[in-house]
Amino acid sequence: MTAARTVLVTGASGGIGRGVCEALAEEARLTGHSLRLAVHGSRESMALSALVSDLTSADGEGEIEARAFVADLTDAGACNNLIGQVIDWAGRLDSIVSNAGQSRPGKLANLPDEDWQATLDLNLRATWLLARAAYPALTETRGTITAVASMSGLSPHPGYGAYSTAKAGLVMLCRQLAQEWAGDGIRVNAVCPGMIRTPLTETVYQDEDTRRKRESLVPLGRIGTPRDIGDAVAFLTSDKASYITGVALRIDGGLSEGMLNLIPGRPDKVR
Ligand SMILES: NC(=O)c1ccc[n+]([C@@H]2O[C@H](COP(=O)([O-])OP(=O)(O)OC[C@H]3O[C@@H](n4cnc5c(N)ncnc54)[C@H](OP(=O)(O)O)[C@@H]3O)[C@@H](O)[C@H]2O)c1
């Protein structure tokens, strides 16, 4: 019997992290592969323990095992320890989905040092520290890293200067690692979500008017869901993507390519 594929998903207690776990679990069930999911949050929470129990009970055959891990990823030591704990549990590590992230909005002209540092530590440095600590294990499994960046990492996002800078750095970190580790058989990719409805953004979408205005900006006409991101991450993590490394995949319903739709007075305007 082959050993269970082991995937660490950081920020699994949140919206997109949960969507990633559900997509990975569904893929394992459909393909008949066993899976160990290390689901991470910054702290113990109802969301994290509910996820572990949902993933386990959805699996009739007992082929999916999930365990919660807690670590503040702005702490460098905690990033290193997390990798050690996951390998102690599972005996191997095949994939990291580096999804934990948070923004601290503020104009750069008066952003406090602490907000800048915390934003870069979580959204950029943590992925590098996790990747570095996991390198020997990922070399053994010829594994993957998939980081959740943002369309804010591809275009400047006024009012989110530290976040946008960190996500742009994250995209480059993935491209860089993809080149440095391709010879070891390790694939590294990023996904760049657009507007996704999750606990992070829920207050915005509770306002109907704002939701409708946002939807009207998206060529595909809707706000994204955590599963939209989860399904793409599950693909990039799987062997079906075995020839893909170093990409930054936009998952935004066409939003970031749609700028010219915003020009008033176009004769052929479709939206
Ligand atoms: N929602 C969007 O529209 C959108 C768009 C583009 C990109 N993204 C990116 O997608 C990722 C997930 O976002 P989301 O919308 O799902 O957010 P979310 O629901 O707020 O989840 C954020 C996750 O990050 C974890 N986290 C926060 N601070 C942490 C810390 N210091 N150390 C370790 N973990 C920490 C949280 O853990 P706890 O719950 O335990 O604190 C939670 O699991 C983020 O990287 C975000 O930047 C989101």
TrEMBL record:
Cross-referenced Gene3D superfamilies: NAD(P)-binding Rossmann-like Domain
Domain Ketoreductase: 5-199
InterPro entries linked to this entry: KR_dom, NAD(P)-bd_dom_sf, Sc_DH/Rdtase_CS, SDR_fam
Protein's UniProt name: SDR family oxidoreductase
SMART domains: PKS_KR (SM00822)
Family to which this protein belongs: Belongs to the short-chain dehydrogenases/reductases (SDR) family.
Keyword Oxidoreductase: yes
Keyword terms: Oxidoreductase, Plasmid
Organism domain of life: Bacteria
